[in-house]
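ok posting inputs for the FE2/S2 (inorganic) cluster job
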Amino acid sequence: MKINFTLNHQPVSIDVPAGITLLRMLRDYLGVTGPKEGCGVGECGACSVLLDGLLVDSCLVLAPQVEGREVVTIEGIRAPDGGPNDLQKNFIKYGAVQCGICIPGMVLAGEALLARTLHPSREEIRDALTGNLCRCTGYQQIVDAIEATALERSRLQEQQKV
Ligand code: FES
Ligand code: FES
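and the output
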């Protein structure tokens, strides 16, 4: 069946079997490999994407469910110059990346949180990451990177108000 949706700010129209997941459509039909297949059953968050701004496990979403909607993967998160954005730079700066499998989902979870608030407590950051498992970092550095980005963005927002 034909599915029309917005992927990383570009319109997409593609024919896929009706029963496949969003994760399969992204990876196998569109070559978008940022979302990873970990558990395949909604436990790990490696396949996370933003669907209309909300963090979802793309392994649990059927492809036809995104008809007319907006999907953002890690490929759609970048600075205006095309390089890593402030959150991605802070993941690097704070040593929040090891094997990298969880990182696309972690960055998207961070972006989903920062779109809701630029003043999250560390507990709120941890809560926002509960659906995203990392077996490498121990989470501390990931929380540090998101917290630092929240502070930087809130300062920037304050400066822009002046
Ligand atoms: S692969 Fe989707 S939650 Fe693990
Ligand atoms: S960096 Fe390896 S699973 Fe998170």
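notes: The chain has a mean pLDDT of 97. The helical segments are 22-29, 86-93, 103-116, 122-128, 140-161.
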